[in-house]
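Supplementary notes for students who missed Thursday's class. We covered one full example, reproduced here. Read the sequence, then the structure, then the short commentary at the end.
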Amino acid sequence: MKAHDGMYIDGAWRPADGRDTIDVVNPADEQVIGRVPAGNALDVDTAVRAARAALPGWAATPPAERAARLAALRDVLVERKDEIAETVTAELGSPPKLSQAVHAAVPVAVAGSYAELAATYAFEEKAGTSVVHHEPVGVVGAITPWNYPLHQIVAKVAPALAAGCTIVLKPAEDTPLTAQLFAEAVHEAGVPAGVFNLVTGLGPVAGQALAEHPGVDLVSFTGSTAVGRRIGATAGAAVKRVALELGGKSANVILPSADLAKAVNVGVANVMSNSGQTCSAWTRMLVHRDQYDEAVSLAAEAAAMYGDRIGPVVNAKQQERVRGYIEKGVAEGARLVAGGPEAPREQGYFVSPTVFADVTEEMTIAQEEIFGPVLSILRYEDEDDALRIANGTVYGLAGAVWAGDEAEAVAFARRMDTGQVDINGGRFNPLAPFGGYKQSGVGRELGAHGLAEYLQTKSLQY
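Structure (token representation):
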């Protein structure tokens, strides 16, 4: 795969400060497919200085012109969709169809939504005798994960650009080639030099330097809750704004009136998609006791169909982590009805699509984020019991409710402690705010709420 041996800073590819590199490994065959520089604190400082220098000009750029650059970026992403999909497949292991339909297509929709928002957003409004201005917060340090490498980048960079902010991006070390491709797209779209900058590197080195840098006004991070806590503490010490999209353990609640077969099949598909590496995946399926055995049988049948259809997890460490959770589920008394801890292939970081029955709410697999193709099925007695179980984790990122009557599902969803709920299989909406309650994060991404994260408010009194 194509890989740059430098950092994209101030509108050009520049040599890294040091000579350390990161191998990019294809998780399907364990082969090295590229190398990128492992940036250090000096690389981060150079990028932040470039972003600060570019900030006044970009912040003063009319919203219509910022919208035009975003529209151009969207068009470049469309033109390069095949290359994007191939790159994601190579470094993440995503099956080609998923790479095309999700990893390449969704960022196009998100970039397009912000092109429209930049042109129509009320950056100035009246409030009685005052005029309220919504201004860019400044330089954004964006730290993104590997599971949706381009989507997570666009979900941060596009609203920041629309707001008039400048950006330094530190992508995940497992999927830096997609980030480099995005930097090329930004350049091709005519975004001015210094407005967007890319530093590849390791989280504890480049990521920490970016979060701590005094020239960064807001840190936007997507990843584990543990790392999010550290970033939040670092930012808090400097009274710096943060946007944190963290872990999840989302409940898929199937009420007795629902179409059980449809709800179970869609629920299994949701968990297995992207090899289970989705923070909002519905990894806990809650079923009424009278329908439990049927649901377990349906889920086991559905999971068996995914044996050759899902890709690997991202790396060897993640493979061992997921297999460890499966072993713990068995040790704590859950019943395997599909899959198991054994690696299904000799080569590649694959994990068998796994379904557990007889899971109780206190079990580790019902409480902790596994981030792999593992589904836990829990039984409930009545709706109040289902709600208690659904809300009974430290997370609150997403969820789902199924019912024969939409109003019944909505009434239940409104009582769930979570940031986003799909009703009877509701589809992804790039304009809907995404983010969590409790330890699933702070702030929102996507749509107008995502744009607001990158703005600060000033009122002029007349």
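Commentary. The longest helix spans residues 96-120. Residues 9 and 46 are 8 Å apart (CA to CA). If anything here is unclear, bring it to office hours.
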